[in-house]
Amino acid sequence: MTDMQLYQSSDFTDAADVAQQRIAVLLPDAVVEEIGATSIPGALTKGDVDIFVGVSEASFELSVNVLCSNGFAPKVDTLQTDELRMLESDDKNMDLACQVVVLGSRYDFFREFRDRLIADPSLVEAYNEVKLGHIHLPHKDYRDAKAEFIERVLYSS
């Protein structure tokens, strides 16, 4: 297994802006926001850009189809439901994923996590520590550690 690299979130600002604009043009009625570590000042990232695409329940399937017809495909080995679709871009120049979410559904938490970290630099430090502490482990273990941290931030108040 190759060790993952971590980078400063600020290194990906331009790529994230381009990705957001691309998706917003395809889905003008969607809520399109950068989420994930690249959107959090001071956070470490493995270099992937994550975009939240919030849509109504009525437009969910159409929105997924529009994205899939324009260079996105379902992300392998991720949760796929009738309220959440994880998609990834076929753009070889950027590691880009989007989470298409029915607004108000139980999966509509990505922005809340981002906003909590932006509001509390100590949470950013703790998130970075989790990443640094698990970076040399298999990707599944790394993702599981991040998921556990995210749940603690969102559900322990």
UniProtKB/TrEMBL annotation:
It comes from the Bacteria. This is GrpB family protein.
